[in-house]
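User: Here's a chain of 94 residues. Predict its fold as tokens.
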Amino acid sequence: MTRIRIWNYEEVAKNTRPNYMTVPDSAIRPGESEAEWLLRMLLRDLQALAAESRIQIAAHTNFVPVADELANSLEEHVRHAPLCVEQGLISQGD
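Assistant: Prediction complete.
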């Protein structure tokens, strides 16, 4: 099974944009398939949900309800999980 590195730490570290701008390392990487990108975004969402609330709040602008943003992002990426199963990136659990 393919190993997917969720974060490109170098890209995240060099991000100097305000947090309300594009989140670093959220675009499709060179050579990454759409399914691999969708799985990486799903895993990122799960990590964000598991983070402490102060980290979740710090990662979002004051203009965005954090809980809503986290839930909407997760819902969007879970919807594409069947493609990740079809591509053999994850298996469908019982």
